[in-house]
Design goal:
- The protein has helices at residues 12-22, 38-48, 61-67, 78-86, 104-112, 122-139, 156-162, 177-189, 193-202, 211-214, 217-231, 250-258, 320-336, 372-378, 402-409; strands at residues 2-7, 27-33, 54-57, 75-77, 93-96, 116-119, 143-144, 168-174, 233-234, 241-242, 261-272, 275-286, 298-305, 309-316, 347-350, 360-368, 382-385, 392-397, 400-401, 417-421.
- It is an alpha/beta fold and 423 residues long.
- The protein is elongated, with a radius of gyration of 24 Å.
Length: 423
């Protein structure tokens, strides 16, 4: 019987993890950190009846003690209490499902105490992964994080184990279910961004504050993690050029339909000699692109190796059930490798991102119809696109650097928008 502690037990992922663990008779939960949601903790105790030796609450130990008065267990609060729960001797594995940066210190403390980790927190990973992974190796424990990027899509193990014979040349991914749902609905129903976002929130696909999703920040952190793992060095997410989908309009969708393309929020990194380029932005994808027909809340990741070529991973990238499944698979993997560190190469040395100005793309451009002749004169290659929009001229450019495009388009007075074209 392996014993685990769960930090973030009353969140959606933590709750679902408890449900999945309940079906594994050889795993026992001995400690919970419940944040502020004491009512949820009480419900979990009734439903799952964990044999607890410690409980933590973010601010209110008195109320929590009253709610667990029938249990003779220690009740902790504050950061020191959280560290105590994360390092209790009874637990061999720590599941970290706390959102934000709160999970970093307890994760490090648990590793120092000789515990394996199953992480479901991309903020902890993208911020401190380059420090935590070498520490886990030093302490001969395992730091597992399958749930931190693809939710239920198995991508970390393939990158870390199955594809190690290949030199990873490129990663392209639809890494956010919220934005993919919104763009799919806009394309299929002709709805505008605001209306579909409201619908996504009502259905639970989008957060009350959707900024991290719709502005591309979530996808940016995920591609930073995948790139760090693929290339073996730390990639700071702040260095990746990131754009969201808030400026995509119904008119853009009409042009995309005319070109038999789809607009997707694509997260990409590509090896460029000894460096690499990286970007998160809306992209126009042709129908023969492997990611073009990934719709609704589904995610997909396409990895290109120098020997294997393209391999694609597809599934539900988010959702409590899919993510909890990945968490418990990490717990099981940690059990299988007790006292044997599963090597992950992710060095502290930072990998530099190539300057954005040097990145090459084709661009779809919308300008006022009055400057059509000017576009044909200034751009070396212009392929007109008729989207049926009055008083506009839409066109595709040839391949050019970001710098060349920006310098050229700055000469137009009627510039409306541009969308990059994915290859």
């Amino acid at each position: 019987m392996k014993k685990i502690a769960i930090l973030g037990s009353t969140g959606s992922i933590g709750t679902q993890t408890l449900e999945v663990v309940a079906e594994h008779k050889d795993i026992e939960v001995v400690a919970l950190a419940c944040g502020r949601n004491i009512q949820m903790l009480e419900s979990q105790m009734r439903q799952f009846q964990p044999k607890l030796v410690a409980v933590w609450n973010e601010t209110d130990a008195v109320t929590l003690r009253n709610s667990t008065r029938d249990l003779s267990i220690p009740v902790y609060t504050g950061m020191e209490g959280l560290l105590a729960v994360a390092t209790i001797p009874e637990a061999e594995i720590l599941v970290t499902a706390i959102v934000g940066m709160l999970g970093i210190r307890p994760t490090i403390a648990a590793i120092e105490a000789g515990k394996d980790i199953a992480l479901a927190n991309k903020e902890t990973l993208v911020t401190a992964g380059h420090l935590i992974i070498p520490l886990a190796k030093e302490k001969n424990v395992n730091f597992m994080f399958e749930a931190s990027v693809g939710g239920g899509i198995p991508i970390i193990r393939p990158l870390n184990q199955s594809l190690t014979a290949d030199r990873i040349e490129q990663i392209n991914g639809i890494l956010n279910g919220t934005t993919n749902y919104i763009l799919t609905k806009m394309a299929q129903e002709g709805s505008d961004f605001a209306d579909v976002l409201k619908e996504a929130q009502e259905l639970g696909y989008a957060e009350k504050d959707p900024t991290a999703d719709v502005e591309g920040y979530d996808a940016c952190r995920k591609i930073a993690i995948l790139t760090s793992l693929a290339y073996g060095q730390q990639v700071d997410f702040e260095t990746i050029h990131t754009e969201g989908i808030t400026k995509i309009t119904t008119e853009d969708m009409k042009y995309a339909k005319t070109m038999d393309m789809a607009i997707k929020l694509l997260a990409s990194s590509k090896r460029e000699g000894e460096s690499f380029s990286a970007i998160v932005a809306p992209m126009l994808l042709s129908k023969n692109h492997p990611l073009c027909n990934v719709n609704d809340v589904f995610n997909a990741i396409c990895v290109t190796g120098n020997m294997l070529g393209d391999v694609m991973f597809y599934g539900k990238g988010a959702g409590k059930e899919a993510t909890a499944s990945a968490v418990v698979s990490d717990v099981v993997d940690a059990v299988k490798h007790m006292n044997v560190n599963v090597m992950t190469i992710w060095e502290d040395e930072k990998q530099e991102v190539a300057p954005m100005d040097e990145m090459k793309n084709r661009f779809f451009v919308r300008i006022g119809a009055s400057e059509k002749a000017k576009a044909e004169d200034l751009f070396e290659e212009v392929t007109p696109v008729d989207g049926g929009i009055a008083d506009e001229f839409g066109f595709l450019t040839g391949t050019m650097t970001e710098k060349e495009f920006n310098e050229t388009i700055s000469q137009f007075d009627t510039f409306i928008t541009r969308i990059r074209v994915g290859f």
